[in-house]
Amino acid sequence: MMALINHHAYMVRAQIQLTQEDPQKLKKIPTRDGCSISEVVRRGIRKELSVNRASRKWEDSLSASTAD
To answer: At what angle do helices 37-66 and 21-33 cross, to 10 degrees?
Structure first.
């Protein structure tokens, strides 16, 4: 059984626009993973934010090392 963990006490409603193909593809993911489309989107956003954050840290460390 999968435990639901809410890391945030409050949610903010957002509206997004998708291509015609995206909703059909998204509908298959929750069925496979047992979560809602909203959760799939939240996970994707969190993943993208963490990748971008890691990339910025890497770029900052490169800039700092070449500035010496």
So the answer is: 100
